[in-house]
Amino acid sequence: MPHAASQHADAQQQTWETLERLADNAARLSREDLQPSDFYQQLLGACVSALAAEGAVVWRFREGRWTLEQHAGLQQAEFAAPLAQPAHLELLASVARDGRPRVVLPTGAAAHVRSPGNPTGWMLILGPVSGDNSRVGVIEVLQRPTADAELQQAYANLLAALCEAAADFHRNRELRDLRARQQAWEACDRFARQVHDGVGLRQVAYTIANEGRRLLACDRLSVAQCRGRRCVLLSVSGVERIQRRSVTARCLEQMSAVAASMRETLAYAGSSEDWPPELESLLSEYVEETEVRSLILQPLIEATDEDADDPRLRQAPPVGVLIVEQFDARRNADGDGLLRTVGDHSRIALRAALRRRHWLARTVDWFRQGSRALKAGLAAALVLGAALAAAVVPADFSIQARGQLVPERRQDVFAPRDGEIQQLRVAHDDPVEPGQELARLTSADLTLELRRLRGEIETTQQKLRSIRAERVRASAPTAADRQSAASWSALEKELEKQEQSLRDQLAVVQDEEARLTLRSPIRGRIQTWDLQRLLEARPVRQGQVLMTVADVDGPWVLELEVPDHHIAHVTSARDEHQGELAVTFILKTDPEAVYHGSVQRIGMTTVSDDRHQAHVQTVVAVERDQIRWLRSGASVVARIHCGRRPVGYVWLHDLIDAVRTWVLF
């Protein structure tokens, strides 16, 4: 007997451990993200296995009657008929109303009895599954009958734990659904704010494509704009520039145009049976090119025929088409609702962007949407009107030239001969007077020449003194002395002439030496920048410009370089008006101010600059008091007004002159 009692205790201990493991397993399942069918399949299977039950069933009350939702352990035919009897259905309702688990032994009630009972041959263990505010269903375990009250209570407690785990599963699932909905609404709100914050049409379309793709969790989202009977791709998610000549772009635009004309959403998920016949070839070509698994074309229509109160809305053309693409088999469960939300916001944002567009862009869109005859007529009228206006309407004709602003009176100081700057007396912007010393040069050749001439003069003078002394000593003239005196006299005269010649040469060289001292030719200011670095102790060449002196207090002029092929217009206008031509110019040092002047003189020769571009020098007189900042050498952009010409010639005179020069000549 003690041994039998020990075995019974061990069996009870194993049973309790099995029940605890089942309860723990049910609690773990309630926290997992499963579908209800998967959850109940695992829960019921574990329950039948742990309890060695005949079977287990989940009942749901839907549309006024109890429906078998899930079962495990038994075949449908074995328990369907007994459990469908009215007495059993009333038992389910009683357990759901009572809200507590119940163990019901077989009662053998008749099939027609409506009172709660167990018309089956099994012991039924029933427990309600509660939701937040209602009963979700009933879990029922079919077990072999037993009279052990303690075991029946254990079964009831276990089923209560399983029902509580099932209730936790439904609450967790509902909480996850609420969180997902909250995240979806936040994403929709963020998408709406980003889309409606856009200004330009391209910006709005770019936002719809890229932000809408994230919201819809699709692989690619494209936006096409309806332009009459055509559709044009505005943006593709993840693509900066659309290749409109590609096969994919062409197929998408043509399919979007058909969907917009039908005003219906077209969906492809592996079969094109519901698609219009005219799109089957395009769809096949597109699917073959991109290997897309799912494709949706949704026209952005103002309202459906049923929802639109205004007939004009029912007839309004779609503003665009959304193109949703998926390249794998996955699909968002809330995709349809989100797609409607994205479509509504996209339609409103695109319509607003189109209204904000410039009137010229709207005119172009209207022109594109018109018929071919209308387009041809308008184009011909525009071309004819433009040609007449170009030939008849006058406009101001001006020639543009560039140059510099300089004082009218200025002179360059040149190097008189090769040498080296010995002393520099002035600096940039120093005031100078006429004849004022500017710099002093030294010339080694000139210094050597001076020394040579002075030495030869000294030698000649010594020879003269010797001859004169010899002639004085010859005091007793004889015939030989008289002959010698005549020779000395001739030599003396020759040396005197030689001395005079050397003195004349010395005077010339001394004059050249005096010219090595550079003096200011006029009154003004030094214009050359950084003279010390440029000239001091530097060798110079004869004729080199060393510095420039300008009379900045006197009149100022513009020195313009008029292009050679434009000078004829300037000279013709001057002869036609028989007076000074008006000039408008700006300084690059002060581009905000516009100044005025008049042509003073036009050069009679054409010169070329360092770039081998021919131009004619033209001098323009200006009023120095009107210029705020006088700066010698300031760059100038000027327009020489040459009267009025037809507007077409004003705009195209360069092209007309080129045709005359290179084609007609």
Explain what the structure shows.
A hairpin with a 2-residue loop joins strand 6 and strand 7 (230-236). 28% of the residues are buried. This protein has 17 helices and 25 strands. It starts with a helix and ends with a helix. The radius of gyration is 56 Å and the shape is elongated. Helix content is 48%, strand content 25%. It is α+β, with helices and mostly antiparallel strands and 665 residues long.
The helix count comes to 17
- Rg, rounded, reads 56 Å
Distance between the termini: 136 Å
* Chain-averaged pLDDT: 81
* Low-pLDDT windows of residues: 1-5, 109-113, 304-308
Structural class based on helices, strands and sheet pairing: alpha+beta
Strand order of the largest sheet: 11-20-24-22-21-25
Q: What's the layout of helices and strands?
A:
Blueprint: H1 2-30, H2 36-51, E1 55-62, E2 65-72, H3 76-83, H4 86-98, E3 102-104, E4 123-130, E5 135-143, H5 149-197, H6 201-216, E6 220-227, E7 230-236, H7 247-262, E8 266-268, H8 277-290, E9 294-300, H9 311-315, E10 320-326, H10 335-356, H11 359-369, H12 372-392, E11 394-407, E12 410-414, E13 419-424, E14 431-432, E15 437-442, H13 444-473, H14 479-515, E16 517-519, E17 524-526, H15 531-535, E18 539-540, E19 545-550, E20 556-563, H16 567-577, E21 582-587, E22 590-602, E23 607-608, E24 614-622, E25 634-646, H17 647-664
Antiparallel strand pairs: 1-2, 1-5, 3-4, 4-5, 6-7, 6-10, 8-9, 9-10, 11-20, 11-25, 12-19, 13-15, 13-18, 14-17, 15-16, 17-19, 20-24, 21-22, 21-25, 22-24, 23-24
Helix pairs in contact: 1-2, 1-5, 2-5, 5-6, 5-10, 6-10, 7-8, 13-14
